[in-house]
């Protein structure tokens, strides 16, 4: 994506999907239209939190429960599951704050006009983002 003149992108990292989701909702309520929420992975695997929702009884693998890694039948994804299964967080013995992006694996991206940047950053930080 190429930004237009006068536009800025803001990258904000969150420790939980809940706080990131609340920030996204508030940003959209305040009129920010170009807002996205993604999960960052150290392994480049496809994360599908909806498919791997353990409360819905749909998680198909152990890594799907903790790393949202299941949900496709591609060979590349199956090979990446080997790395994911070896991740310390799957065993439950991971360090505190262990994970991706410095313990903040949820990325909110906002594209907005230059003059709206302080308002967007304020909302993001209010919800616990590292900007």
Description:
The chain starts with 6 loop residues before the first strand and ends in a 5-residue tail after the last helix. Strands 1-3-2 form a 3-stranded antiparallel β-sheet, with helices on one face. By secondary structure, the protein is of the alpha+beta class. It has 2 domains: 1-40 and 102-131, Alpha-Beta Plaits; 45-99, no CATH class. Helix 1 runs antiparallel to helix 5 (117-126). The longest helix has 13 residues, at 17-29. Residues 46-54 have low confidence and may be disordered. 34% of the residues lie in helices and 17% in strands.
- Under CATH, the topology of the largest domain can be stated as Alpha-Beta Plaits
Q: How many beta-strand segments?
A: 3
Q: Low-confidence stretches at least 5 residues in length (pLDDT < 50)?
A: 46-54
Percent of sequence in beta strands: 15-25%
Q: How is the largest sheet built, in terms of strand order?
A: 1-3-2
Based on secondary structure, the structural category is alpha+beta
Shape: elongated
Class of the largest domain in CATH? Alpha Beta
Portion of residues in helices? 25-40%
CATH architecture label of the largest domain: 2-Layer Sandwich
Largest sheet: 3 strands, antiparallel
Summed over residues and divided by their number, the pLDDT gives a mean of 74
Distance between the termini: 20 Å
The helix tally amounts to: 5
Series of H and E elements: EHEHHHEH
Q: What Rg do the Cα atoms give? A: 17 Å
Give the oligomeric state: single chain
Number of structural units classed as domains: 2
